[in-house]
Amino acid sequence: MDGWIHVDSVAGQGAVFRIFLPVYIPTEPIIVPAAISAPPPRPVARDLSGAGRILFVEDEDMVRNVAARLLRARGYEVIEAADGEEALMLAEEHAGTIDLMISDVIMPGIDGPTLLKRARGFLGSAPVMFISGYAEAEFSDLLEDEVGVTFLPKPIDIKTLAERVKQQLQVA
């Protein structure tokens, strides 16, 4: 069904299970009586698949693994990096072929905004999406003169991530 389960467990404090399932889209047409003039029905969900190479930079293994798996299931090629240093090496290795970089803002070593400044030459005009548990205003001043940069707050909603990735790659 292309769903997944996220578990948070702390010894002595219990566990939280989050179950994510895709939205049901009926396959039979909706019939509207002729006497009622209604606008055509809007689809319940959009096709969230796409194509492109994404450099995904996140120091939290669980977040990175789940998001990368989701994006791969939607047709994207995902290159994973656990920190800014690894991401910089991968950006150089894949220079000119990365369609989108998604990066955490706060990471050990090279943070997200610094990574973008150092990797921009390898990324060309590829859009960048920052994800963070901090408010965008707390780091937006570090991104002066950058274009094509968007923000997605944590915790990441998987459907929103897929929608935003597709949107960013359609614009690019």
Considering the chains and any ligands shown, give keywords for the structure:
172 residues; alpha/beta; Rossmann fold; 5-stranded parallel beta sheet; globular
Describe the structure.
It is a single chain. With 172 residues, the chain is an alpha/beta fold. The chain has one domain (47-171): Response regulator (Rossmann fold). Helix content is 28%, strand content 23%. It is built from four helices and seven strands, in the order βββαβαβαββα. The protein has helices at 61-73, 84-93, 112-123, 158-171, and strands at residues 4-10, 14-20, 53-57, 77-81, 100-104, 128-132, 149-153. α2 packs parallel to α3 (112-123). 27% of the residues are buried. Mean pLDDT is 81; it is low at 36-45.
Instruction: Estimate the mean pLDDT confidence.
Output: 81
Distance between the termini: 30 Å
Name of the CATH homologous superfamily:
Response regulator
Low-confidence stretches: 36-45
Give the helix level as a range of percent.
25-40%
State the CATH topology.
Answer: Rossmann fold
Structural class: alpha/beta
What order do the helices and strands follow? Answer: EEEHEHEHEEH
The CATH first-level class comes to Alpha Beta
Largest sheet: 5 strands, parallel
- Strands of the biggest beta sheet: in what spatial order? 4-3-5-6-7
User: Count of DSSP helices?
Assistant: 4
Strand-residue fraction?
A: 15-25%
Q: What's the CATH architecture name? A: 3-Layer(aba) Sandwich
| Strand elements, count | 7
